[in-house]
Every structure is written in structure tokens, then in C-alpha cells.
Design brief:
Number of helices: 7
Radius of gyration: 51 Å
Strand content: 15-25%
Order of helices and strands: HHHEEEHHEEHHEEEEEEEE
Strand order of the largest sheet: 7-6-13-10
Number of strands: 13
């Protein structure tokens, strides 16, 4: 069966119909007067692959300056097809996981300030009241009101013993050198086998005899002119007073046994009898 090759609508209309196929083509192309009418006449759906369409409009596709620039779709183009699955900018950002305020930080002029700061080693970022700026360590200390205190050398033993500076920092290892700090203390049970409950700078307690003890220091005092404070628990009998004091090895009680390394104490009741007591405390103040 012979056929005719048609290149446009006019060719179909003016050509002689050679068969029924020609007549069908004529019916299709002769009725529409625009491309939009053509799409409607053939069912309203056209798949275009690799071709160029010439005309002013095809359905929702608008052509401008030789290219189609916009497209109207019945539904939002899904992400899997290269779209966002959304019809608004806000919804699109949410669908893509870049919602402002929850997924990403909103633009801010002060963030621009921070981004523009030089990444100089050891600088600090601080606010100057209107913008973010950088400051050196020295400037930052001044801003914080620290002055030179933060970089000052820790107090020496001599400075602690003098105890007059108000600008020198103190470390835990030298705090005890201050005159106000106890240089040694101990609480012990003197009945039976002597047992230290707790202590500081006391290495041991020597049980010399009933009611006579020697408190031995871990670190010696600078001299023997330190103060000794001692307390004890009351005696078992309410009618008898118990006391504690520095032991003297002479009858006059003037030759106290107090050295740089230890101090001897006694515990006795009001009739002058030495006794062991269950709770004795000794505290030492002086120069170490």
C-alpha cells in the first residue's frame, strides 16, 4: 500500500489521500489551529524525548526566547525525581533537611563578625558591646578584672610565713606555711594500744607510760617555740576532772619536752594521777 510523507499540516490538507491512514492524519492535523489545541486533540498527554518543540505554549509549558522556561505540574516533583516534594521555599528546606533555625543556623551579622576574625594563636573571642572581637591573653585578663594575678608566681614559703601580700596567689602545697594555719594536729585513742583516728603532719604517737605520750611530727618545725593546744575527753568519773598538758621532765615543771620534731604530753586527773584517756587531741601552731 502506498503512503505519503507529510511534513506539516498544510501538506496533509492539500495532498491527495492515498489511503485511510492519510485520512486519519488529515483529521488529526486539520482541526487544531494551535499547538495547545493539537495536544488536546491527541489526548492531552505528550512525551517528548530528545526533540525540539516549536510554538508558543504546550499545556503548562511556556516558551520564551527559544527555550521553555517554566512548567506547571499537577503534583509536587518528589525528591527522588530531582525535586523537593514541596511547593513553597520553607517546605522545600524542611523536606531537604536544611530548615532554618532547626537544621541550619540562620544568617546573622555577628556570625559574619566571628567568621572574619583572624585565627591568631592564643587569642580569645570576646564581645566589645556591639561586635565580636579578639583579645590577647593579657588584654583578656584585664577585661576579666584579673590583672597580673593570673600570671603571678605562687607564694613562696617565706611569703606565706610573712603573710602580708594581697596579690600573690597561694597553692595548696604552701598554704600551711601561713602563721594562721595549724602546722600539725592529731586526734587519738590513748587507752590500751594507742590508735590515731586522724591527723596532719603527725607520723606517730609514742606511748611512753600511763598517761604519757609523745607526738612525733612528719615534717619538723623551724624552732621549738611553737604553741601547743590540747584537749581530752572527760574522765569516767564525773567527780574527777581530767586534763592534758605539755610534759616536763623536772619536778618544777619548767623543763618541757618540746623539740622541733616532737612534743611530749600527759593526761591526768585532778588528784595528780596520770591516766590513759580515750579521746585526746593536740594541735600545733608556729613556724615550719
Amino acid at each position: 500500500m502506498a503512503t505519503t510523507n507529510y511534513t506539516d499540516k498544510v501538506t496533509v490538507i492539500e495532498a491527495e489521500w492515498l489511503n485511510e491512514a492519510d485520512a486519519v492524519v488529515h483529521d488529526i492535523l486539520s482541526a487544531p489551529t494551535t499547538l495547545a489545541e493539537f495536544w488536546t486533540s491527541i489526548g492531552g498527554t505528550v512525551n517528548i524525548d530528545g526533540g525540539v518543540i516549536d510554538g508558543t505554549a504546550i499545556g503548562g509549558i511556556v516558551r520564551a526566547a527559544g527555550a521553555f522556561t517554566t512548567m506547571a505540574l499537577d503534583t509536587d516533583l518528589p525528591i527522588t525525581e530531582g525535586g523537593t516534594g514541596s511547593s513553597t521555599a520553607s517546605a522545600a528546606r524542611t523536606a531537604l533537611g536544611v530548615a532554618i533555625g532547626s537544621d541550619v543556623q540562620a544568617w546573622d551579622t555577628q556570625l559574619d563578625d566571628i567568621a572574619a576574625l583572624a585565627v591568631t594563636d592564643s587569642n580569645f573571642i570576646v564581645g566589645d558591646g556591639s561586635n565580636w572581637v579578639t583579645e590577647t591573653g593579657a588584654t583578656a585578663r584585664t577585661s576579666l578584672g584579673l590583672g597580673t594575678f593570673a600570671t603571678a608566681a605562687a607564694a613562696s614559703q617565706a611569703e606565706q610565713e610573712t603573710g602580708t601580700s594581697t596579690v600573690v596567689p597561694v597553692t595548696p602545697g604552701r598554704q600551711h606555711y601561713h602563721p594562721s594555719a595549724a602546722k600539725a594536729w592529731v586526734n587519738f585513742n590513748g587507752v590500751g594500744v594507742v590508735a590515731i583516728r586522724d591527723s596532719y603532719n603527725v607520723s606517730s604517737i609514742t606511748d611512753n607510760s600511763v598517761g604519757i605520750y609523745t607526738v612525733n611530727f612528719t615534717n619538723n618545725m623551724s624552732d621549738a617555740n611553737y604553741a601547743v593546744l590540747a584537749t581530752c575527753l572527760m574522765y569516767a568519773s564525773a567527780a574527777v576532772i581530767a586534763g592534758v598538758g605539755i610534759y616536763a621532765d623536772d619536778t618544777a615543771g619548767t623543763n618541757k619536752v618540746q623539740t622541733t620534731s616532737a612534743v611530749k604530753i600527759f593526761t591526768q586527773i585532778s588528784n595528780g594521777t596520770d591516766v590513759d584517756l580515750a579521746d585526746v587531741s593536740v594541735c600545733i601552731f608556729g613556724d615550719m
